[in-house]
Amino acid sequence: MMIPDRSMRLDGRVAVVTGAAGGIGAAIARQLSAQGAQLTLMDRTAEMLEPLASEIRSAGGRSPLVLGCELTDEKAIRDAAESAVNAFGQIDILIANAGLLLPNATLEQTQTAEWDLTMNVNLRAPFLCARYFGAPMLKAGKGAIVVTTSIAAHAPNTTASYGPSKAGLLALMRQISVEWGPRGVRANAISPGLVRTPLSARFYADPASVARRMERVPLRRPSEPEEIASVIGFLVSDAASYVNGQEFIVDGGILNTTLSSSAPVPAP
Ligand SMILES: NC(=O)c1ccc[n+]([C@@H]2O[C@H](COP(=O)([O-])OP(=O)(O)OC[C@H]3O[C@@H](n4cnc5c(N)ncnc54)[C@H](O)[C@@H]3O)[C@@H](O)[C@H]2O)c1
């Protein structure tokens, strides 16, 4: 009997990671490169990505294409997709990971411009990335998309614009999974809990407040970015070939504690 190949190897596949200069994005890039993928790394500027690109080259990974791309600019996203297709001839994997968490603000404090910026980066940009990087996937009849959402899609956050943007992103992922599943393109979401990165640095400044936050996490610690990346590595691989339209909550169990505590938790 033939043993089916359901391996996590990504040799011969081209993967695009947005927000790759950030904490979680860099970990995703290292993970997918270790699985054998050819990477296209995107962030605001190419300079931000050079240290990661040279680290991947030194580690023996395939040399990444590095693209500066402002994600609020539709033309920049379209051009980035064109560059990646010109370089590699195909796109197999898109990780729409870049995201923005503005300073704490209640609904009444939130300026319309702040709301719009959050929606632009966290929801409109993944839609545009799916449109332009997804086109070659649909043409080829295969591909895998993962969007980085957040537990804030389920539990209100100290920045009022953030959760709604991530809940919208979950709905976008489900829409993609239903429209593009029949055409060979899977879409899933990963929702991290508390991960220590530049985005969440302000929540880790005060040791007493960190200790209080960790009391709410059943695993009693924040996650390492690598613990998010490894689940994404599974989701985009053939090991997850029948997984489509799902949200993977990787939060150490914190969402389950909501009913057992009265204190509100700021959860980026
Ligand atoms: N850190 C956490 O605790 C946490 C928890 C839940 C979800 N998330 C989500 O994980 C994802 C990655 O977050 P992170 O913690 O690595 O944050 P990070 O700030 O370290 O990285 C985010 C990256 O996105 C890029 N980016 C932001 N706006 C952009 C724009 N307009 N154009 C181009 N690039 C842009 C930034 O330059 C940055 O490199 C985000 O979507 C975030 O919302 C993070």
At CATH's second level, what is the architecture? Answer: 3-Layer(aba) Sandwich
Query: How many domains make up the coordinates?
Result: 1
Strand order of the largest sheet: 3-2-1-4-5-6-7
Q: Which value, in Å, is the CA radius of gyration? A: 18 Å
Q: Which ligands, by name, code or SMILES, are bound?
A: nicotinamide-adenine-dinucleotide
User: What is the CA-CA span between the terminal residues?
Assistant: 48 Å
- CATH class, named Alpha Beta
Describe the protein's architecture and organization.
- 40% of the residues lie in helices and 14% in strands.
- Helix 4 packs parallel to helix 5 (162-180).
- With 268 residues, it is of the alpha/beta class.
- The protein has one domain (14-196, 224-251): Rossmann fold.
- 45% of the residues are buried.
- The chain is built from 7 helices and 7 strands, in the order E-H-E-H-E-H-E-H-E-H-E-H-H-E.
- Strands 3-2-1-4-5-6-7 form a 7-stranded parallel beta sheet, sandwiched between helices.
- The protein binds nicotinamide-adenine-dinucleotide (NAD).
- Nicotinamide-adenine-dinucleotide (NAD) binds at residues 19, 21-25, 43-44, 70-72, 97-101, 121, 148, 150, 192, 194-195, 197-200, 268.
